[in-house]
Amino acid sequence: MAQPRRTRATAQDPHGTQRSCIDGSRIPHAEKVSQGDPNRAAILITLHRFELAGVEIDERAVEIAAKLTRWHIANSAEEAADQRQKLLAVREKQKERECWVYYVRIGGLVKIGMTTNLTNRFQSIRPNEVLLIEPGGAELEAAMHRQFARLRASGEYFHPGAELQQHINGRRAELGAPQWTRSLVPDGLDWFPQESAEQAIA
Predict the structure, then answer these.
(1) What angle do CA 173, 174, 175 make, to 5 degrees?
(2) Which stretches of the chain are assigned E, i.e. beta strand?
(3) Measured distance CA(36)–CA(165) in Å, rounded
(4) Of 100, 97, 104, 108, nearest to 181 (Cα)?
(5) pLDDT digits (tens, 9 = 90+) for 30-63
C-alpha cells in the first residue's frame, strides 16, 4: 500500500510550511480584542473556550471573556502572593526553631555538633558525658569548629586543649551545667561529676 508523501523541507522553507494546510495566518476572533490589551492572548484563549462550549461570540461574550480573564489573572496573582507569604512564614518558623550546639565527651575527645533534637542525637552518638549545651545553629557550630581548628582530631572531634576547656567552663558558668543523663554511656572518667558540676576539666 502506498504511503502518503511527506512534505520535503527546503532551504527556502526549512519546516515545510508552504504545503501545510495549517498556515496560522488567522487567530480566531483576534479582531475583537485590542492589540494594546496586555491580557489579549489570555482573553482570546477564553473566547476560544467559550466557542468550544457553544457560546456565540458577540460583543457581550467578548466583554464577559475580558472581565473573566482579568479577574482570573488578578485572583491568580493574589493566590501567588498568599503562597509566597505562607512560604516566608514557614521559613521564618524554621529559623526560629530551637537549635542547639552541644559539646560532649566521647572517650578522651570532645565532639562539637549541632542538632534540633538533642534526645535523638544523643541516642545516636551515645556520649560518655554531656559537657555543655548552648543555643545556636549551624553558624555557631561552624564558628566553634574554626575557633578550635588547631585542636581538631577528626571531623567534629577535638582534643580537650586549654582554650576549649576555658570556653566550656565559661559557658557553663553563664548557662549552668547541662542536666542531661539520658542516653549516656558512663565510663567513670567524668570531667564534670554530677555531684560537683562546677569542677573544671581534669
Answers:
(1) 100
(2) 100-106, 109-115, 129-135, 152-154, 157-158
(3) 73
(4) 104
(5) 888 988 888 899 999 999 899 888 998 998 989 9
